[in-house]
Specification:
12 strands; 44% helix; two-stranded antiparallel sheet; alpha/beta
Length: 308
């Protein structure tokens, strides 16, 4: 019987090892959740904290970072979408990451004619949906007004059933089964919310009365993040450079949604059926969150990133 010599055995073994290695890499790449982040980053402090956590999550493949407006806010500055777009790019620079950034609609949707805000962000959502493998849905995480998402499905209704949307907005009384739509993100574009409510988009919503459990103090933020990394300083600076920078405590709303998606075991969800004037459809609502564990995870993951 012929036995393999060392020179005959090694190339074969090496080839098998390389095949296994690239197969594993491919599997990991396919298992990563494809994410489009859509945020009114310039509006508050919490957006940057949430986006930073999302961008360093290894199980996520963030394919685009969109900017949305907060134009109808009473304290809005000129060109709110551009302000958000600029901050998105600055944050990516602090992280040392390269993610496509797209400008969204400059204001809410139109209430006549072609109602869509035709923007790079809306068309990016359409593009990424169509690039999503058959049988899968594109995950869109919206942290502000729903203008870009609603515009995308208005432009191309065929993508509705292929989007899994996570949104921070509205409030929900779980005891009385009452949905209210007068919170900040909802009223920034009430028409966009209406379009989403009557669409086929899968909606997963954390209401503001649940996200409000996520609170940070400036003292702890400064202690943990200041001078630890340029990104840490950037996040600390954002706190006191905001127009109400004297606050000692803040609700970090958007981070609650990011953590709930990454760690579903730290959140309770219920399926609700909305009333006829709110779409008469099923929506997954976050009913409660473990905000302390989420906060610990945020600091832990950022500090690990700082050491890399």
């Amino acid at each position: 019987m012929k036995t393999l010599s060392r020179c005959e055995y090694t190339p074969c073994k090496l080839a098998l090892l390389l095949f296994a290695y690239f197969t594993i890499l491919s599997a990991f790449g396919q298992s990563s959740t494809r994410i489009v982040l859509d945020a009114d980053t310039g509006n508050e402090v919490d957006d940057l904290y949430a986006i930073a956590r999302a961008l360093i999550e290894p199980s996520w493949n963030t394919v685009a970072l969109n900017a949305t407006h907060w134009q109808t806010s009473q304290w809005a500055e000129p060109n709110t979408m551009e302000n958000s777009h600029r901050l998105n790019q600055l944050l990516l620079g602090e992280l040392g990451l390269s993610v496509p950034t797209r400008r969204g609609g400059v204001a809410r949707m139109y209430d006549w004619g072609d109602q869509a805000q035709h923007s790079a962000a809306a068309y990016e959502i359409i593009k990424q949906v169509k690039a999503t493998p058959s049988g899968e849905k594109l995950t869109v995480v919206a942290l502000g007004a729903l203008t870009n998402v609603a515009s995308a499905i208005y432009i191309d209704p065929s993508i509705e059933s292929r989007i899994k949307l996570y949104w921070l907005g509205s409030s929900y009384d779980f005891e009385q089964n009452i949905l209210k739509r007068v919170d900040f993100n909802a009223i920034m574009d009430a028409q966009a919310l209406e379009i989403l409510l009557i669409s086929e988009v899968e909606m997963n919503v954390i209401p503001v009365n649940v996200a409000s459990a996520m609170t940070f103090t400036f003292a702890e933020v400064e202690e943990k993040l200041a001078n630890a990394h340029p990104l840490g300083n950037f996040l600390v600076d954002r706190w006191y450079q905001h127009l109400d920078g004297s606050r000692k405590k803040r609700t970090i709303w958007d981070l609650a949604l990011i953590e709930a998606i990454i760690h579903p075991e730290w959140a309770e969800t219920v399926e609700v059926t909305t009333s006829r004037d709110s779409g008469n459809r099923k929506i997954n609502y976050y009913r409660s969150i473990d905000s302390e564990r989420m906060k610990e995870d945020f600091y832990e993951k950022l500090l690990e990133y700082f050491k890399e």
